Each structure stands twice: as C-alpha cells, then as structure tokens.
Amino acid sequence: DQQVKQNSPSLSVQEGRISILNCDYTNSMFDYFLWYKKYPAEGPTFLISISSIKDKNEDGRFTVFLNKSAKHLSLHIVPSQPGDSAVYFCAARRDNQGGKLIFGQGTELSVKP
Amino acid sequence: DAGVIQSPRHEVTEMGQEVTLRCKPISGHDYLFWYRQTMMRGLELLIYFNNNVPIDDSGMPEDRFSAKMPNASFSTLKIQPSEPRDSAVYFCASNFLGFDSPLHFGNGTRLTVT
After folding, report:
1. Which among B41, B44, B105 has the least Cβ separation from residue A43?
2. A98 → closest Cβ in B4, B93, B97
C-alpha cells in the first residue's frame, strides 16, 4: 500500500523555466510534508517542508503547495538551474509517530542548459 | 558536524553470506532510522530506534534482517543469509524528537548480492 505516490518517475525542464514536481497521498492523518533532494551517491537532504495548517511555503526559488482536499502537494522550482538536477522525494509524517517518514518513489529532475 | 556516517559505502557479496551494515548517527540525536531504496519501492523505512530502543520494526522484510543499537553512537543492520533481492542502497538517518526536525541521512551503503 503506497501511501505517498509520485507518479512521474522523471521530468525534463529547460534552464530558467519552472519545474513542477507532484505528489499524492492517501492517508488523511498526515499532517506534515517534506521534500528531499538526492544527488547520485549521496543521501537525501532536506529541502523544504509544509504543515497541514498551511497551503503554501516558500524558500527562495522553492515553493511547496498543499491541497488537502485533493490530498496533493507540489514543489515548484523557479527558475530551474542545472544544479537542481537530482531525484526529488516527497515524504509525509504523522507527528505522533516522532520522525517516522513515509516516502514516495521519487522523481528524477533533469534541467538542461 | 561530521554528519551521519555509514560503512561500508559498497558491499558485494555472494548469496547466502552474512552482511553487516554500520551507522554512526549525529551526536546528540535520539532517533535513528534505517531505510532501503530500490527502484520499485523507492525509500522504505525498515526500522527505527529511540534512545537506542527499537520502536517500530514493521518494515523489516523478513527474519533474515536484524538491527541493533548497542549505544547512542552506533547501529548495525545485519542480513543473514543474504539473497539477490536484498540488493539495494541502505540508508541510515538520525534526528531529534520534534515536529520541525528533518532527518539527516548518511550517504548510504550500496549492497549487491550475486
């Protein structure tokens, strides 16, 4: 049972354009969502998060949008840069489970110069 | 801050052999997690510890897998006997208890079982 789904395994975007990575979840008890970025041969690193009481959180070029009614969140990167090329994982957490995260399968973003 | 340290970085072994993966969490972190990454299933939680005590091992796939945390600065994940389907990248992560505390991952161990 995949509670967090990233249906696009890959995405290719031109440098300077917007990248939109999508994530869907099934468990309405999730109340905190995170995005992680992973380069080859490295571990995932935390990128940005959003609480379920918000619908948007912005950090520089990165913005995460949450639509609770649709159980959907997205990560926008504007403008996209070649250094953003990586695998992006969406994750969801229930606060009463401490730090336990449920991850999606990841989307590989390629930003072409 | 040296980050989460995992060893070895790569492990190649034959089916049936015992494999031990090691992890040193960030000093002061009281949660430790073992995740496995595969193409089919992405990142899966195997087990996690709080203050060296296993809290949830429901993600451990079979009895062939076991994990220990003898002290706050060391954990092992053991597979015995190993099988080709265990081939994956295994990540260790740690963090503090807290809503705003992200996981800090190590660089992983790439396991290949032939």
Report:
1. B105
2. B97
Which residues are CB-contacts of A99 (< 8 A; sequence separation ≥ 6)? A93, B31, B33, B48, B95, B97, B101, B103
Q: Which of A4, A23, A100, A108 to mutate to test the interface with B (most CBs of B within 10 A)?
A: A100
pLDDT tens for A11-68 read: 999 999 999 999 999 988 898 999 999 999 999 999 999 999 999 999 999 999 999 9
The shortest C-alpha distance from A16 to chain B (Å) reads 29
Q: Return the bridge partners of B109, or none.
A: B90
Phi, then psi, of B103 in degrees rounded to 5: -75, 145
**Nearest C-alpha in A relative to B58:** A100
Q: DSSP alpha helices (H): ranges in A1-113?
A: none
Distances (CA, A) of B9 to A96, B20, B108: 33, 12, 6
| A15-24 residue pLDDT tens | 999 999 999 9
Neighbouring C-alpha atoms within 13 Å toward the C-beta of B18: 6
Residues in chain A closer than 8 A to B50 (CB atoms): 98
Mark yes or no for CB contact A103/B35 under 8 Å: yes
